[in-house]
């Protein structure tokens, strides 16, 4: 269900914002940065025992477990740690800087729940 547009503060671009309802009834907001992406509607996945399904934090532009032949399900034995903080976070620079990215200082050392 579309709720409003999100305005990107860097370039003023309007991005569609939706309220998504999961099968268990939980809802959360999503931004649809890439309209009609093949990743917008994916099948139901059955994760094998002793494996995990990983989803990128930019789901319209992430190579993750939805790409069964490229990434697929990750064996638990390959998991060696747990993320607790965001060390660094960058975004594309649109201010004419010579660097192609800029630091998102509001996210540096931000705790992950």
Automatic annotation (TrEMBL):
CDD domains referenced in this protein's UniProt entry, alphabetically: S26_SPase_I
Chief location category: membrane
Keyword Hydrolase: yes
Highest taxon of source: Bacteria
Topology within the bilayer: Single-pass type II membrane protein
EC primary class: hydrolase
Keywords tagged on the record: Hydrolase, Protease
Biological process terms in GO annotation: signal peptide processing
Catalytic activity: Cleavage of hydrophobic, N-terminal signal or leader sequences from secreted and periplasmic proteins
A GO molecular-function annotation: signal peptidase activity
Subcellular location: Membrane
Chain ranges of the Peptidase S26 domain: 36-86
Known EC number: 3.4.21.89
Pfam families: Peptidase_S26 (PF10502)
Cellular component GO terms held in the UniProt record: membrane
InterPro entries assigned: LexA/Signal_pep-like_sf, Pept_S26A_signal_pept_1, Pept_S26A_signal_pept_1_CS, Peptidase_S26
Any coiled-coil regions, as ranges: none
Family that this chain belongs to: Belongs to the peptidase S26 family.
Protein name: Signal peptidase I
Source taxonomy: Bacteria, Pseudomonadati, Pseudomonadota, Alphaproteobacteria, Rickettsiales
Gene: lepB
């Amino acid at each position: 269900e579309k709720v409003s547009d999100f305005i990107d503060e860097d370039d003023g671009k309007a991005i569609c914002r939706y309220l998504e309802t999961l099968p268990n009834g939980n809802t959360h907001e999503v931004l649809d940065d890439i309209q009609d992406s093949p990743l917008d509607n994916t099948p139901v996945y059955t994760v094998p025992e002793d494996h995990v399904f990983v989803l990128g934090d930019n789901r319209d532009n992430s190579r993750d477990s939805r790409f069964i032949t490229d990434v697929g399900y990750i064996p638990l034995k390959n998991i060696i740690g747990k993320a607790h903080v965001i060390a660094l976070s960058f975004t594309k620079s649109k201010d004419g800087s010579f660097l192609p990215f800029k630091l998102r200082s509001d996210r540096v050392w931000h705790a992950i729940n």
